[in-house]
Amino acid sequence: MTCFKLYSACVPVKGASRSIICNLEKGNFNYIPNTLCDVLVEYKNCSIDIIKGDFDESSHAELDKHFSFLIENGFGFWYDKPEEFPDMQLDWDHSSPITNAIIDVNDSSKYDISEVIRQLDDFRCEALQLRFFNVISIEEINQILSTTYESNFMSIELYLKYHPIYSDSFLKDLCKKYERIRFVIVHSSPEEKIVSSDDDYYYAWYDKTELKDESHCGNISRKYFSPNILLFTESQHFNNCLNRKISVDKEGNIKNCPSMLTSFGKIQHTSLKEALEKPGFKNNWTIRKDEIEVCKDCEFRYICTDCRAYTSNPKDKYAKPAKCTYDPYTATWA
Amino acid sequence: MSKKTFKPCEVLKECTGNLFKELPLSVNAMEEEKLKKEPKKVFSTIKSTYQKMYKLHGFHKPISQIF
Predict the structure, then answer these.
(1) Which end of chain B is more exposed for a tag (fewer CB within 10 A), N or C?
(2) What is the pTM for the complete model shown?
(3) Helical residues (DSSP H) of chain A, grouped into ranges
(4) B37 contact residues in A (CB cutoff 8 A)
(5) CA of A6, closest CA in chain B: separation in Å?
(6) What per-residue confidence (pLDDT) applies to B37?
């Protein structure tokens, strides 16, 4: 019996008016009609004869066309023994209690950034974002980043406020010296440009946007879509922004993210470990996209990162992200 | 039992591309940009291997969405 089989990393997600099929290994997705999504789910491991048998004859050509589309785009194949290709498990777990962190700094910040980084490293934190809203000296940058030598961080993202001292060559040298830097964004820049190293490993963007504080965050956009196995599986079970995230805002408050209102203590008096263990710190970690208003009907829900800080109704913990302009019911972006 | 009708999708043809590919902050855009270049002459060392690992893999999602 020849059946259509999706590759295990190709997973359809149904939305209110259309669906997508994610290729989580290749990191892309395609739009498919909801009717095709229904067929793929309802008739999993069924032969084409069985599928066509349930549809009127006028639909057969369309069905063939859509299966051809899936094969041409590398989403699936015809095979006699579909049971030999089990579905991918959508479980998610991580060995680190904290996987990602944000540290915000401005001129009035009065805490030891290097000490925060050391505490994050004790968590075996993978990804760190350092956001400087004011200009910081090269010496300070080096002093802070030197803490990350021989650390567990896999990725460091650096946001700097534009100053002529941050030349192209400085940024290249910085990324070369601190190999964990994934990219540098120089905000408030008079011009927009991209700097990359000769071997394309280092990326820096100069952007005109003036970042004054954390309120710029929470944007929901196609450019942030990340169709990969880790995000897709994490989104099935956890809040895909706040889960295993910890932050220190510019005033030194320990929070889920700098834009959230609740503080779990000042970093000057409370360790990150103590904050993590406080009641309520993990409350937002389990708010899944499937529970959030509007998001639960959106085809992008497992590849799009949520925002719980800026929502359409602050009193409702399941309210839609306020800065999302996508309407899944009409499949349009405002 | 009446047969079902398969409703074709108008957007199937026009939306097969990935919009996020073109945008600079996307995890995928960055990785694809690096991968599509011709591989340079690389002397494989532990350092270069780890360096590639950091740069190519990064973190699996945006840490913030500030832009």
Answers:
(1) N
(2) 0.88
(3) 34-42, 48-54, 57-72, 113-122, 138-146, 168-177, 229-237, 272-277
(4) 200
(5) 17
(6) 55
